[in-house]
């Protein structure tokens, strides 16, 4: 949303959303392409950005980068919030889908020849 003076700024700085931490809590290794899914109900005692992130991924999956854009937070801050939720069981985190490897053309041709021979 924009105002006459320009884009709307966040009222709360990103470092306050992470409680000033410099490392994500827990054992989850998250990067910008990690995929987030809502897993369970939101634990009591969490609010603000934690609730917003959980509600954002509840209807379906999003990457950390997509969630950060929706929340208007840096990716690093979103990683911290997602790690908090994953540690409490409210989010499931999945590694990004790896890039496809090129197909071995020789193998594909032999497979096709074998399938044709079955006729």
From TrEMBL:
Cross-referenced InterPro entries: DUF742
One Pfam family of this chain: DUF742
Protein name: DUF742 domain-containing protein
């Amino acid at each position: 949303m924009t105002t006459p003076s320009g884009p709307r700024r966040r009222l709360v700085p990103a470092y306050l959303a992470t409680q000033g931490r410099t490392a994500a809590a827990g054992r989850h290794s998250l990067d910008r392409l990690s995929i987030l899914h809502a897993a369970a109900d939101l634990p009591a005692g969490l609010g603000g950005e934690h609730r917003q992130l959980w509600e954002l991924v509840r209807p379906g999956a999003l990457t950390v980068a997509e969630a950060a854009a929706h929340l208007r937070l840096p990716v690093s801050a979103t990683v911290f919030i997602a790690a908090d939720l994953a540690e409490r069981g409210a989010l499931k985190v999945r590694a990004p889908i790896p890039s496809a490897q090129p197909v071995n053309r020789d193998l594909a041709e032999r497979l096709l020849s074998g399938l044709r021979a079955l006729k």
